[in-house]
């Protein structure tokens, strides 16, 4: 079942009225009318609209809203200084032409879970926060999880200042244009020290829950994954007058490398994708001088990932050598395997088993998340909501209304046990 193209299929009236109203009010922000996909990139107008939406939802619930030095938004119930806070949330930014659920489902479900806890009349024993992490997808500046990497100190201010978008605008310039002070960015250990647990609910980006017949699952681990930039430099020339034997065409070497990446991934049981390319001068009738391709590679274990990366680079260098192409390979980002903290993950399993009487499945994922970035600094865990087609990073991304409701209830159960007992 896929959501109707265009309108995010989202949860229908059966979802709590507040969930449905939130979903509708968010759905129009940064959406491409043609494809129905989303274009919510860091520090753009759509991002500002998402931030305003977040602030309004928080203030409507009498939460104290703040934006931290790295542009992450926090909506607090209780005094953060009391420490040992329970935090939930996700991100609102998207990949180019992304789906309606990746990120927003976690944020909307967090507000809806708080509504549910208030309906249950529980009293909070620990501070609670709902977070919107900035620039999780890295769609504009090429690095994923910028907000959480800065906060956890995994991304230095110097490296962040060096990030540029396709128009050459730097991250600090973009932040400034959006009204934020880029000079303030940096690690925020005091903030992390006040957090006792972070639970991120996210639409599953795969079909494990669809295959197991479960509405909700718990993350076991995130595969090691990274991004490598391949620069193939050849010789610009006339497409119409240059004999084939006289060419040094980098597009050919790029194409051979893409095929090699598929082969290496199949051999290693991994995944490898060249999803982004830039060509100079990018003229129909011009043999390129430079072809730049970005490789996204992921594998269940480090050894398999290393094999893929080494295999692709070796093949690329061999093809480049033969064709007289100069090749530069740069590792732009890398996230080692995330093995979610067992204590919190097992506690979520127990809570949900006690509440629902069923064992909620535990599953790995190849998708990166802020919960993964922060897992080295604070206890983190993830809840997944069934995605019947597994499709993500696409306008066709979908989660059925009943499953979204099940996700909210599971999150409310977890938050109640963690923050109210
Ligand atoms: O790329 C990822 O895995 C995530 O969606 N940022
Ligand atoms: Mn994503
Ligand atoms: Mn996401
Ligand atoms: Mn995430």
What is the CA-atom radius of gyration, in angstroms? 22 Å
H/E topology pattern? HHEEEHEHHHHEHEEEHEEEHEEHEHEH
Please report which band the strand proportion falls in: under 5%, 5-15%, 15-25%, 25-35%, 35-45% or over 45%.
Answer: 15-25%
Please work out how many helical segments DSSP would assign. Answer: 13
How many DSSP-defined strands?
15
Overall shape:
globular
Can you give the mean pLDDT? Answer: 94
The computed structural class is alpha/beta
How far apart the termini lie comes to: 39 Å
Low-pLDDT windows of residues = 1-9
Instruction: Estimate percent helicity.
Output: 25-40%
Protein name: Allantoate amidohydrolase
Biased composition (Low complexity): 1-15
Binding site for Zn(2+) 1: 91, 102, 202
Region (Disordered): 1-16
Give a structural overview.
The protein has 421 residues and is α/β, with parallel strands linked by helices. It is built from 13 helices and 15 strands. Strands 1, 2, 3, 4, 5, 6, 13, 14 and 15 form a 9-stranded mixed β-sheet that branches. Strands 9-11-7-12 form a 4-stranded antiparallel β-sheet, with helices on one face. Helix 3 (104-120) links the parallel strand 3 (85-91) and strand 4. It is globular, with a radius of gyration of 22 Å. The two termini are 39 Å apart. 48% of the residues are buried. The structure holds (2S)-amino(hydroxy)ethanoic acid and manganese (II) ion (3 copies). (2S)-amino(hydroxy)ethanoic acid binds next to loops. One manganese (II) ion binds next to strand 3.
């Amino acid at each position: 079942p896929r959501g109707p193209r265009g309108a995010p299929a989202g949860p229908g009236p059966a979802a709590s009225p507040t969930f449905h109203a939130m979903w509708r009010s968010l759905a129009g922000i940064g959406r491409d009318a043609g494809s129905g996909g989303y274009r919510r990139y860091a520090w753009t107008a759509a991002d500002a609209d998402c931030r305003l939406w977040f602030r309004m939802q928080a203030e409507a619930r009498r939460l104290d809203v703040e934006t931290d030095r790295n542009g992450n938004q926090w909506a607090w119930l209780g005094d953060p200084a009391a420490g040992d806070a329970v935090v939930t949330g996700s991100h609102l930014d998207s990949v180019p032409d992304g789906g309606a659920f990746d990120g927003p489902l976690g944020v909307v479900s967090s507000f809806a879970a708080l509504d549910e806890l208030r309906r249950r009349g529980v009293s909070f024993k620990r501070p609670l926060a709902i977070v919107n992490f900035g620039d999780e997808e890295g769609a504009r500046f090429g690095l994923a999880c910028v907000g959480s990497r800065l906060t956890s100190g995994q991304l230095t201010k110097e490296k962040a200042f060096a990030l540029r978008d396709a128009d050459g605008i730097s991250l600090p310039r973009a932040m400034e244009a959006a009204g934020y002070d880029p000079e303030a960015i940096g690690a925020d250990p005091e903030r992390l020290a006040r957090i006792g647990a972070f639970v991120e609910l996210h639409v599953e980006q795969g079909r494990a829950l669809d295959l197991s017949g479960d509405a909700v699952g718990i993350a076991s681990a995130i595969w090691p994954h990274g991004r490598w930039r391949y620069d193939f430099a050849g010789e610009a020339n006339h497409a119409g007058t240059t004999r084939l034997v006289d060419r040094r065409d980098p597009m050919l070497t790029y194409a051979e490398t893409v095929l090699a990446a598929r082969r290496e991934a199949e051999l290693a049981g991994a995944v490898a994708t060249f999803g982004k390319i830039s060509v100079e001068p990018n003229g129909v009738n011009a043999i390129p001088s430079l072809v730049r391709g970005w490789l996204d590679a992921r594998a269940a274990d480090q050894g398999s990932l290393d094999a893929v990366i080494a295999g692709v680079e070796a093949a690329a260098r061999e093809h480049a050598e033969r064709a007289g192409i100069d090749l530069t390979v740069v590792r732009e980002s890398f996230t080692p395997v995330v093995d979610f903290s067992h204590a919190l993950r097992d506690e979520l399993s127990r809570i949900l088993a006690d509440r629902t009487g069923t064992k909620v499945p535990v599953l790995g994922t190849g998708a990166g998340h802020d919960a993964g970035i922060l897992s080295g600094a604070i206890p983190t865990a993830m809840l997944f909501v069934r995605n019947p087609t597994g499709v993500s990073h696409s306008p066709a991304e979908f989660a059925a209304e009943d499953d979204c409701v099940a996700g909210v209830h599971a999150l409310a159960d977890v938050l109640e046990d963690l923050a109210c007992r």
